[in-house]
Amino acid sequence: MLMTSKSLRRLSSRLLAEERGIAAVEFALILPIMLTLWIGGVEVTSALNADRRLNNLAASVGDLVSREKEVTEADIAAVFDIAPSAMYPDGEAGLSVRITAVKVDDTGVATVAWSRAEPSDLAYAGDAAMNSVVPEALRVPNTRIIMSEAFFTYVPTIGSIVSPDGIELEDRLFFVPRLSSEISLCPQADSPADQCVS
């Protein structure tokens, strides 16, 4: 059967006028893009919320310690014990917290006075140099600084295909002791001054 040019024109105009399947085709093309945007938006929002909670945790830990004249090992352990609750609902897997008292000498050189962390192997060694960590503007000669750090590995719920090891989040905040010029770390509440580190 031979088609004449007239019948070809009629067929092509009829096909061009057909609109019943256009919406289904458009939906099929746009659905993957919309799902990707929605899932990406959910994951970005969750990561930002985890980062905000981590910042609040670092601020709370630093604030608790900077309000004291001295802290004990039990005080620090109690702070570390409650830290995971600040990360709810993300949980405590991948969470680390470090609190460090930094002393600045008369030449503006910052070193560690004492440091504790959970897990404990993250603590800085005594007298470790801190000039690379503490900003120059905070290294006022003959002062003490409390540095609170929190680290968290955020593992995306759905995006673990893109980032299977998670996303490393970190917050570091600095505080000035409020009730004294320095904050001592003592083994227990009634420890003699010579057993405390300041």
Structure description:
The chain is of the alpha+beta class and 198 residues long. The chain has one domain. 34% of the residues lie in helices and 23% in strands. The protein has three helices and six strands, in the order ααβαβββββ. The chain starts with a helix and ends in a 12-residue tail after the last strand. The mean pLDDT is 86.
Oligomeric state of this protein: single chain
- SSE series: HHEHEEEEE
* Total discrete domains: 1
- Please provide the count of β strands: 6
Q: Which class do the helix and strand fractions yield?
A: alpha+beta
Side-by-side strand order of the widest sheet? 3-2-4-5
**Mean of residue pLDDT values:** 86
Q: Shape from CA axes?
A: rod-shaped
Q: Mind describing the biggest β-sheet? A: 4 strands, antiparallel
Describe the protein's topology.
Layout: H1 5-17, H2 22-66, E1 70-72, H3 73-82, E2 95-104, E3 110-118, E4 143-154, E5 167-175, E6 184-186
Parallel strand pairs: 1-6
Antiparallel strand pairs: 2-3, 2-4, 4-5
Q: Could you give a short description of this structure?
A:
The chain is of the alpha+beta class.
